[in-house]
Structures are given as C-alpha cells and as structure tokens.
Amino acid sequence: VFTAPYDPLSGVQGRFESYAQFSGEYPDGAVTDADGNYWTALWAGGRVACLSPDGRETGSVAVDATQPSCPAFGGPGGNLLFVTSARDELDEAALAASPKAGSLFVYETSAKGAPVIRARVENRLVATV
User: Fold this and answer.
1) Is 64 a catalytic residue?
2) CB neighbourhood size of 58 (10 A)
3) pTM of the model as a whole
C-alpha cells in the first residue's frame, strides 16, 4: 500500500511513499475512519486490517470469508463496518470451506467513518510498482 499527499482543491498530488506491506494477504478495497485510520480488506486473508495514520496495524476484524473485498462505514451512527466478499476463482472445496463467500458482512465498531471528500484524479499513470 502506498500513500501520497493530495490537495483536493487543486488536484495536485505529491510523491508516493510506502505505507504498509502484507505477506500472503492482498489489500483490496479500503476506507478511512474519522480518526485517520486506514481500513483495508485483505484478499486471501479473511480479514479487514486497521492501520494507524503512520502505517502500524492496530487491529483487525475477522471476516467469515477468505476473500473480503471492500469495507465501508455507514449506519445511523456511522460506526457500522460493511464488508463485501467475493466467490471469484474459488473451487468447490474452497467454497465448502468458506460457504459465506460472496456475502455482505456488517460489524459494529468503535470507529466512525470519515466524511467523504470528492477528489479530481487525472487520467494518467501516477506510479509503477
């Protein structure tokens, strides 16, 4: 996972820097909470990791599916974590081991979602890995 400073008013983006790395788990969708923590679904990890603004993992939520794909905050108090999951490329044995794959999961958290900020992103290559 990489991060870069970004000015939403001007659309100017700064230099990318490494933020977090995972081994055997693949960051997929992500969301930021009101405290600036980064929550990322970890494909093949069966969890959503919460990382502090400086990239330290501070906790995680176990998901009853091996391929969580995207977290989002919502609900009346903004503290419900919605997590989608996928069934892509799972054979019969994998589906038997993870029968809830493809489901939507909802978790009550102590975190609250951050307000959404619309941003303009240029249609150009911004980084290579």
Assistant:
1) no
2) 10
3) 0.85
